[in-house]
Amino acid sequence: MKKLDIATLISEHGDILTSLFHHMSDMFFLMSVEETAEKEYHFRYVLMNRAAMQVADLSEEAYGKRIEDVYPEEKAALLNRMYQKAVLGEEPIHYTTNGEVIGESILSPVYNKDGVCTHVFSVTRDITERKKLESRLEYMAYHDVLTGLPNRRLLSINLHEALTEAKVKNELVAVLFLDCDHFKEINDTWGHNTGDTFLKMLAERLKSCVRDGDTVARLGGDEFVVLLTGIHSWQQVEKVARRILQSLQLPWVINDQEFSFTTSIGISIYPTSTTDADQLLTYADKALYRAKATGRNQFLFFDPTPS
């Protein structure tokens, strides 16, 4: 337990402390503790640095005031609960706050020589940018950078979840594996920037062909996978596949250049083709290459019979 006469420290070295705290980038508050006869606690502002005043929208006018004199009732109640836990816990309290500013806070009780908690100080570090970066990195781990679509990792997660749900509900799951016929010619003729623009437009067209609950993923290059869930018949899958073929056959205009192209689609179905998630992708891929080898611009279901 820390023994410190904080009141004496402030009276003797207040100017030095204030100067030191003002140069901290973290937000610092020092609150005095008042205990009522009913064992309720109130907290008054004793010190705070510039970072704290800026973020909390406070000024030195708050000095000597209670939290409830400064903030609306709901926010004051939240802050009072946090500081009270620090007093009663006799150990630093760690909090993560969310809002426009995301902060990690440590609230520590300060005791006098008699063991009475007279003050609580809190230090809050603004981790907003760090959280944004973490969120961005997490997003990038599960999404394709170019199109923003789910990548192979997220597709695998969604597929396994879909199979689990389909087993319970006795439904079908369809995997449509597709790539563009002669996509290399787009890059070779108009360049990779045009090719990237085309892939982003392709992603949007694919999303327009499916329901919100379905998944459109990009595995890389011009390889895409459509995951259909809640399916009850092969006819539903055929309908989506035809819709995709028709949508992608419409003219494409990029940088005032109009061109057209076709795609090929291979399809596997759970549980008819297999009940294994990885095998579903493998079988859809095999059906895709058979579709390309037998004429392109078509969709074929996986057929285990040797061709």
Description:
This protein has 307 residues and is of the alpha+beta class. The model has no long low-confidence stretch (mean pLDDT 86). Helix 7 (183-190) packs across helix 8. The chain folds into 2 domains: 6-127, PAS domain (Beta-Lactamase); 143-301, Reverse transcriptase/Diguanylate cyclase domain (Alpha-Beta Plaits). It has 10 helices and 12 strands. Strand 7 (215-220) and strand 8 (223-231) form a beta hairpin. It has a 5-stranded antiparallel sheet with strand order 2-1-5-4-3. Strands 7-8-6-11-12 form a 5-stranded mixed sheet, with helices on both faces.
Search tags:
Beta-Lactamase; 307 residues; Alpha-Beta Plaits; 44% helix; alpha+beta; 10 helices; 2 domains
> How many independent structural domains?
2
User: What string, H for helix and E for strand, traces the elements in order?
Assistant: HEEHHHEEEHHEHHEEHEEEHE
Averaging pLDDT over every residue, what do you get?
A: 86
The major pleated sheet works out as:
5 strands, antiparallel
CATH architecture of the largest domain: 2-Layer Sandwich
Number of helices: 10
The assembly state of the depicted protein chains is single chain
CATH superfamily of the largest domain: Reverse transcriptase/Diguanylate cyclase domain
Give the N-terminus to C-terminus distance in angstroms: 79 Å
